[in-house]
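Running log. JK asked me to keep both predictions on one page so they can be read side by side. First protein, sequence followed by its C-alpha cells:
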Amino acid sequence: MKKWIINQSETTNFYLILTEKSVWLTEKPKEVNIDELINDKKLTEVRIERYVDDIKEFIFIDTNSTLEINLKDDDKEDIELPLESSIYNEIKSFLIPNLKDTKVKDYSLIKQIQPAVIGTLIFGAITYFLHTIALSLQNGEEIRTSGRRGLIKKIFVGIADFLGPTGSLIIGGLVTLFFIYILIKTISKPQQGKVIKTKSFTELKF
C-alpha cells in the first residue's frame, strides 16, 4: 500500500491510496493518524475503485499535472485529480512500472479530439434537423410527430417552431462553432501524457 496527500485544507487532508487491487480516495481531519486507521481496519468513508472491475484507464496529463481515472460504468462520474507537479510525477513514476497486466501508451491526439469531434457532429446534425423542420413549418407543411419516438419529434418541432429558421441556424451554429473551436485548439496545442489501460488481471506490485 502506498499513499499521498494530494490536496489539503486548513483542517483536512485528501488522500490517494493505492493498494494491490484498488484505488482508495478519502478525506480525513489532519489530526487523524491514517496509518493507524488502515492498520486497525477502521478507515471509513472511502471511495474504492478496483483496477479490474471498475477502472477502465488512468490518464496522466503532463501538460497540467492532472490524473484522470476513467471508469467502466458510464453511470459513475470519472475521477479528475489536479495535482502539484512533484506529487504528480511521483505517482506517475510509481504507477507505470508497478501496475502489472496493463497497456501503456502515449496520450494520443485522436483520443483528445474525440469529445470535440462528437460534439461537432451531434450539434451539426441537430442544427440541420431543426433548420429543416423550421423551414417546413414556415412553409405551412404539416410535421408528423406520432408513432415511434413521437415525444422526441414533438420536442424538436417545438424548439424549431420557437426558434424559427434563422434562430435555429444561429443557436445551433454557435454551439457547433464552439466545438469546432475546441477541436482546433486541441489540434494546435495537444496535451502530452500517458494512458494506462487496465486488463483482466491488473494488480499493483510493491
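And the second, directly underneath as requested:
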Amino acid sequence: MSNLEKSTEDYLSRVNSVILYIEENLDKTLNLDVISCHANFSPFHFHRIFTALQGETPADFILRLRTEKAARLLLEDKKIPIVEIAYRCGFSNQTSFSRAFRKCFGMTAHEFRKQKKAVFSSNRQFFNSLGELVERTDTSINNKQIDSFALENVTFIKNPYICMKRMPKFEVAYLPYTGDFYEIGNTYTTLFDWANQNQLFDSHSTRFFTIYHDDPTITKFEKNRQSVCITIPNNIKPKGKIGKRIIPEGKYLVGSFDLSDTEYDKAWNTMYLTVIEKCYKLRDASIYEMYEAKDNNLFSQPYKVFMCLPIE
C-alpha cells in the first residue's frame, strides 16, 4: 500500500469515527473544536478533510442530520411538543430550529406534522397509510392523491412470522455507504473480501446486517446512509475504511422471511402493516436487516432475513 493510500485509509477511519460520534450525540454540543478533537485533527485540517470526503461541511452535515431526525420524530410521535423535539435534536432554541426546518422542507414543523408517514413502497415509490404518494423534492416533501392502480403494486407477504422480541447486542465490523440503497452491492463485495482475508466466515455463527440510518422519504436518495456489517470476535480490530460499532440491544418487532432479491419491499410493507394494525409505537433507533446462512449457504436464494423495527 502506497503512502497516499495509507493516508486516505487513515482519513476515512477518523472521519467515520467522527460520523459515528455525531450520530450518537446529536443532542449535545457538536462544534468544530469538539468533533475535530475527536478525530485528532486540527479544526482547519479536519474541516477540509471532512468536506472533501463527505461532500458537505461538518456544520452542514450536522444540521441536516438534526433536521431530518426532527422530521422523523414529528411523524412518528404526534404527542411530543415541537420545542422538545427541537432540543432533543440538538437545536439551542426554537428560532434556529424553525429556520433550519423551513429551509430543508419548505414548510413549518407544524405544517409538516399534519402529513402521514410513508410506510409502504413499490418500484422506488413510497406511500402513506392513506394511499397517498409521498415524494421528496429538493425543497419539500409532498403527499399526492394518486390513481388506485398505482397502489395495486404495493404487495405483502402472506402468512408472515412476526413477533415482538428483545434482540441482543451485536459487535460488528462495518463499512458505511451513502447513496441509493438499491445500489449497495459493491459495498457488500468490499466487506466480503475483507471478511475472507480475515477468515471471519463461519456459516453457523456469522451474521450480516444492513443498518438503515435514514428515512428515504425524508433524506434525499443520494444522502441516504447505510452501514453494511458483519459480526466479529472481540480480538478483531478493524482499521482503515472498515470500522467497528455496536448494534444495541433492545425491543424490536422482528419478521422472519425467506426472500428473493425482488421481495424486500413486500417484506418491509408487511412489517409496517403490522405496526399499523397492532398500533405499535416506533422507538427512536435505526432499523436493520439481519441475514444468516440457509442450509449452510449465506449467499443462496431465498435469503434468510430477519427484519427488525425498534418498538417502544
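Observation for JK regarding the second prediction: The radius of gyration is 20 Å.
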